[in-house]
Amino acid sequence: MEENSAYRSILHFQLGAETLGVGVSNVLEVLRNNGLTPIPRSADFVRGIVQFRGEIITVIDFSEKLNLHENEPTSGKVIIVFQIKTNEHSFKVGVLADDVKAVEELHESDIKTVDEITHYYNPEYLEGVVKLKEEFVIVLDVNKIFSDKDIELIKTTAKNDKK
């Protein structure tokens, strides 16, 4: 094994029938979903707001955001709180998930690009896919998932933007 090999920790979680993965560097905490406050007339993917460490954060449904309409609906048992960083913004957002499965230490070369799944996912935020045990985990770059319009909506909903 090379000494300078690039390893990453990936949190993988269940979202309906899909298993998704994200770098743990973006994950702040996993919360039990004890209820959300809905936001009237918000975007389809916004499920509400919740208090997190004294801040109000927006909670979204990745099934809607990622256009997984044919997926099983999420039970929303847990909320994964992410710290999102773009060139212009830094903000927290919660994502509903069915379950957190594990954190795996992976070598960068374990994450493979797969052209066949890019018609389901936007290739801009798709890092690739990795096989863990007997299942494939789709690895996302959460810093690239939100458009400027999405970020404005999240900022307005929760007022948690730090430029």
Automatic annotation (TrEMBL):
GO terms for biological process: chemotaxis; signal transduction. PROSITE patterns: CHEW. Residues 7-151 form the CheW-like domain. GO terms for cellular component: cytosol. This is Chemotaxis protein CheW. It comes from Salinivirga cyanobacteriivorans. The lineage of its organism: Bacteria, Pseudomonadati, Bacteroidota, Bacteroidia, Bacteroidales.
